Amino acid sequence: MSGDDTVAETFVLRETAAEPMTVVAVRAHRHRAPLLRPFVTAARRTEAVEYVVAEVELTGGVLGQGSAAETVAVTGESAETITAALTGPLRRALEGTGGTILELSARIAGALEGATSAKAALEVAVHDAWARRLDAPLVELLGGRIGDGLMNDMTISLEDPEVMATRAREAVVGGEQVLKIKLGRDIDEDRRRLAAVVEAAPGARLRLDANQGWEPEQAIDIITGFVADGLPLDLVEQPVAAANIEGLARVSAAVEVPIMADESVWDAADARRLVEADAVDLLNIKLAKTGGLRGALAIADVAREAGVECMVGAMMEPRISITAAAHLAIAHPAITMIDLDPPAWFASDVPAGGYVQDSGWLRLTGGPGLGLDRLGADVDPSDPIGDDR
Ligand SMILES: [Mg+2]
């Protein structure tokens, strides 16, 4: 493509992006998706995911979808409250109104307090419809390139060391190169688990998530011990309590392993506080925490300015949410890592499209919007669909 074409296309993109759209309808439908095998962390054991699909319709019949899973322990939202937010205040804020993508996103953010995953579902749906209307992949409207990809990881559930070793071996044989492990509360048991995983999958890199489990001094001892054990660590996520910024800074200063904030960062103001305190090396962005793409991009902008890199993660969410997270991740230069394996846990991973994964490497499939088929209200994710994607 010549330079002139690039200029012309950018111009067209800006013009169309600034064009207002009108939302004629906001709808929501619920699904229950069984997992292939239980997902076990120190906090909970999940066998099925309750989620809600948000759908918007623009004038002319253009549709867009987003989704949100029940995550009572993290965002405080259940499938009932997500549905109530979508069909109540969020629908009232949007239905019958017009505006640019930024105006509609701002209206969603201001429609009610909290409800970040319900807002994310609707805000993603609006972005999907916006991009479909412009016949462009969302990633390109956000400034990225459809052909780019990122290395994904695979979570190994918290089980006995032998079971975790088997799962780690299976993952690596299946092409995974990065394993994520959510640690328990017994550090001696964790060391046995990690040793078993490393023995079973010697070439894999590890990401550890302590989910606020330690005190700062304890975290320093534990992580120093992991390094002495020779564990191939990419990062350690949220070693101490979310509000303990000073503790995070102490851990970051004391260990070589990059420290990532997750529960400590929900919005750009949190991100700014963390980077100003030199508290972490990395930030974990999740759409269910930020309330959608615009809040997520704002965190990534803070990170880029501070020279901090980001990972895009997710809750145990369905494919629509994960595809939106992948578009976000590939679009922003400060986002260099993804932790987006939830669809691999679903017995029936619907709808088709969005992205493909090969040897741990995730790429978007292209097509307008998120590039996904529409998920109808009548689809039952308990029905197996085969593996013909
Ligand atoms: Mg985490």
Automatic annotation (TrEMBL):
Domain Mandelate racemase/muconate lactonizing enzyme C-terminal: 161-258
Cofactor: record remark: Binds 1 Mg(2+) ion per subunit.
UniProt-listed Enzyme Commission number(s): 5.1.1.-
CDD domains recorded: L-Ala-DL-Glu_epimerase
Entry-linked SUPFAM superfamilies: Enolase C-terminal domain-like, Enolase N-terminal domain-like
Keyword line: Isomerase, Magnesium, Metal-binding
SMART domains in UniProt: MR_MLE (SM00922)
Reported cofactor(s): Mg(2+)
PANTHER family: O-SUCCINYLBENZOATE SYNTHASE, O-SUCCINYLBENZOATE SYNTHASE-RELATED
Similarity comment: Belongs to the mandelate racemase/muconate lactonizing enzyme family.
Protein name per its UniProtKB record: Dipeptide epimerase
Species annotation: Brachybacterium fresconis
Organism lineage string: Bacteria, Bacillati, Actinomycetota, Actinomycetes, Micrococcales
